[in-house]
Amino acid sequence: ALAAAGGGGAGLCALLMLPVLLLFLPGLAAGPAGMLQPRDTPSRERRELGGLWSFRADLSPGRDAGFAQRWYRRPLRQTGPVIDMPVPASFNDITQDPSLENYIGWVWYEKEVLLPLRWLQGDPAPRVVLRFGSAHYYSIVWVNGVQVVEHEGGHLPFEADISSVVQGSPGSLCRITVALNNTLTPHTLPPGSIQYMADKSRYPKNYFVQNTKFDFFNYAGIHRPVVLYTTPAAYIDDITVTTTSSDSVGRVQYQVSVAGSTANSLSLSLRDQEGKVVATGDGPVGELKVLSPNLWWPYLMHENPGYLYSLEVRMQAQLDGALLEDVYTLPVGIRTVHVTSSQFLINGRPFYFHGVNKHEDADIRGKGLDWPLIVKDFNLLRWLGANSFRTSHYPYAEEIMDLCDAYGIAVIDESPGVGIKLPESFGNRSLQHHLAVMEELVRRDKNRPSVVMWSVANEPASELPPAAHYFKTVIAHTKALDPSRPVTFVTDANYALDHGAPYVDVICVNSYFSWYHDPGHLEVIPLQLTAQFENWYKTYQKPIIQSEYGADSVPGLHSDPPLMFSEEYQQALLREYHSVLDKKRKEYVVGELIWNFADFMTNQGTTRVLGNKKGIFTRQRQPKAAAFVLRDRYWRIANESSCLPPAITSHSLFL
């Protein structure tokens, strides 16, 4: 992305990522200990704030006019020209302005809403919370001119209790202002750098570029729903569940934390999908036992995949003489995950990942949440016979994860640790931020049965010596946060040089033989891929996933014999990989994830024609020839390993 601005190089960079440390109103914090997904319950209300917001990019020479002029103190339209901007969406592709397409720096959003009077009154009044599903990358939020939260990171939720602001203001108008910055530095996640072009004979004054070491477009904006929700003043703050099963008994261990007051009573009821109560409990810590449980199974591993119970938590508390009750309902899937030296087990049965890598990416809306696209993608996944995907290369929206839970799609849940290539990105500052991101990710997704493994990074420079301490620390921290799941990162380093691999539970390897290496030479794949697997397994004695492989193909481009970028070459490359995978999956290879599910946008470059074309579907979700190769393969694997009736495993059901 390119931009031109005034001011000195270092000074402008500081302004681009200006950590505006304004005073917080007493009583406000960056977020509670818990991060329960907002739901409507008998004691809670939620209101989505999607639609059109006012928008303004700060085009001042230093990108700092919004702060210098305090745009948050008054309606944004009074500060200068504004345009309509849809939320959720990336702002880059919405207009015809090329400077906005590639804009780097601060942009401003604003939404004015009227709050129901019942949210503002009562003794005690309810708690009012403002929550962002995600905003990329650095966010500062004001309500009625008062700063309420500041957050770093573009792919995870953040929220603020705004009760004292809105309940202390006259009237029910709530003006929400957001300053958002998409600049990436060596210490952000993902990292990047600002490069200033000093040659005045070739570049305008103070011309700079945003450099990144990842191969997808750095879309920016408010990408996921913005929600206002209420809870009682004393409320259920967090719930943690872990599950086990043995001898026809399912066990749900739970821990519930409350805030605002001490709970007088805390009761739990676990209901099956017919609404029948199958277990009850009380108190903040305990275990629920379910006889003959319906286990959560991945898609095509059971005739009823994705089975979810409903855990209702009910709390009563006394506060200021009033008896308050809060109710929260959490979907729960009972399942186990275990890793041996050569197998990945779900509920004690070997599980083979036959799935995809994806991106949150589509025409016009960029990375913005889009329900029709999400449902289309899940229909394509099931048509394909895919049982899994990796959230490459950042956490996906909660709405997507909800469907993974419900449909039985196993997920390798990946942090935004992509492009960690520079030595300075392995320093303590970067490490501390990475640890904080893993805390946010685990806090958000810890209760999801679909999440079967955490991935802390993708293709880092793990051959560098500092990577040993870095990944040992990040992986140990993630395991401490959640001992119930295996942890990995995805490598493209040489097996003999990788300093992080000793600490993972599963080896995830990306390789592009006959594409980036020996391009055009399909005949080298069997030898090179076999050597890859054997070297990794001999060194580490851990199960292996082929976490990326593939080739670009331009839709409609044909060549026989196969030549690069043709649909036939993509098919041929896949078949060469599959011939080796079929041998090794009988030994210690436990999965294969194609790169990629669909074509996606990247930065412009001489090797990218309107983005990366390695999708088996186009960006508009139309199948290329390779999609049918993969579909035949995945259904064959499912039929080989499944105990389902023939009608269930027949992919003719999904024609």
Automatic annotation (TrEMBL):
EC number: 3.2.1.31
GO molecular function list: beta-glucuronidase activity; carbohydrate binding
GO biological process: carbohydrate metabolic process; glucuronoside catabolic process
Record-annotated membrane-spanning stretches: none
Recorded superkingdom: Eukaryota
Glycosyl hydrolases family 2 sugar binding domain segment(s): 49-232
The Glycoside hydrolase family 2 catalytic domain, residue ranges: 337-638
GO cellular component terms listed in the entry, alphabetical order: extracellular space; lysosome
Record domain Glycoside hydrolase family 2 immunoglobulin-like beta-sandwich: where: 234-335
Main location: other
PROSITE patterns named among the record's database cross-references: GLYCOSYL_HYDROL_F2_2
Tagged with keyword Isomerase: no
Signal peptide limits: 1-30
Pfam families on file: Glyco_hydro_2, Glyco_hydro_2_C, Glyco_hydro_2_N
Keywords: Glycoprotein, Glycosidase, Hydrolase, Lysosome, Signal
Localization: Lysosome
NCBIfam families, A to Z: PRK10150.1 (NF007538)
Subunit structure: Homotetramer.
PANTHER family: BETA-GLUCURONIDASE
Protein family membership: Belongs to the glycosyl hydrolase 2 family.
Role played: Plays an important role in the degradation of dermatan and keratan sulfates.
Name of this protein: Beta-glucuronidase
